[in-house]
Amino acid sequence: MVNRHKNWQMIMTTIIRNNLTRRDLLAMGGAACALAALPAQALNTTDAKGLIDRVVARINQVINSGKPQSVMIVEFEKLFVDFADVNFIAFKTLGPPARSASKAQMRAFTKAFQGYMARKYGKRFREFIGGEIVVQKARKEKSHYAVDTKTLLKGRSPFKVTYLVSDKSGRDLFFDMRIEGVSLVNSEKEEIGALLDRNGGNIDRMIADLKKFG
User: Do both 33 and 80 map to the same domain?
Assistant: First the structure.
């Protein structure tokens, strides 16, 4: 009992020395509760553009690193995982079969799909060496944001790539790319659908095949 009394005295002495009254403590507690209750800041054009600025910076870093293609592909896969809503993209590209697939199949497909994307597009990015990707502007589109970029390659006409950005997953991520107006997700949905057809609709066999593509 004596120790508890001494501890309480020490606490009260600390409060008095710092001129903290009961009213001060209640006010501080109320302010803390109010701050905790504030909603997270919603995605805006600045955030969306900032995300794609980071994406492009990482792409340029990998392209100009001079590393072997196999290493670059690994780094592109990390980039895809870091900045893209991979789960959403995988679900959309698999299409209706995704609704009947088991959780284990979706995990396996998502993992195989991100590797496929890294191999397929990582190889193409070698064409960008000596070129430049320029982030232009961001704008609101329905429930997401679109960020335009222009890719300048030596000896070729520049082309436009638009990243679609959302925070619905809980993070700011891009969930599609429009290359000269053509949706990457829709294009890959056709590719995955054709691969699934070749495997008689069997998701497990299609996943095994997907690991060889790209």
Answer: no
CA distance 11 to 57: 52
| Strand duo 159-166 + 182-183: pairing | unpaired
- Rounded distance between C-alpha atoms, residue 94 and residue 190, angstroms: 9
For residues 127 and 153, give the distance between their C-alpha atoms in angstroms, rounded to a whole number: 8
Mark whether 26 and 90 lie in a shared domain.
no
Q: Are residues 22 and 57 in the same domain?
A: no
What residue has token string 């704008």?
A: 139
- In the predicted model, what is the mean pLDDT of residues 110-123? 94
pLDDT computed for residue 41 by the predictor: 63
Whole-model pTM: value is 0.78
> Using N-to-C axis directions, what is the helix angle for 69-83 and 45-63, rounded to 10°?
170
Task: Give the residue, 41 or 188, on which the prediction is more confident.
Answer: 188
Residue 170: what pLDDT?
95
Q: Is the dihedral of CA 203, 205, 206, 208 positive or negative?
A: positive
And the tokens for 204? 């497990």
